Amino acid sequence: MAESESQEENYYNGEKMVENFNTDMEELLDEMEKLTVRAAWMAYNYVAIQTNPGPYNAMQHLEDAFLMCKEQMEKKWQEVLLESRGEGQKKE
Question: Which InterPro entries does this one have (predicted)?
């Protein structure tokens, strides 16, 4: 009786191991697919930039301008917050 229970446990454990293996393999394959697509896009972008650097340079300029604008907006926002806190204290 104990031997048949042990065989059932071994079968169950083996079945679980196969399921876990299949799940792990599917996850790894999905990750590999994502990485492959990402690498393909990187290669495509590299060729596009080398062929015609104008759009890349324009995007770089726009990104720089955006970051400078964002920085200025954050500074102004901090000033507004400080002014509003100062006025709130004066009224009290």
Answer: Synaptonemal_3
* Residue 52 C-beta-side C-alpha neighbours within 13 Å: 6
Express each pLDDT in 20-45 by its tens digit: 999 999 999 999 999 999 999 999 98
* Number of other residues whose CB lies within 10 A of the CB of residue 49: 14
Angle between helices 53-91 and 2-51 (to 10 degrees): 100
Q: How far, in Å, CA of 78 to CA of 71, rounded?
A: 11
Q: How far apart are CA 30 and CA 34, in angstroms?
A: 6
* Tokens matching residue 54: 């104008």
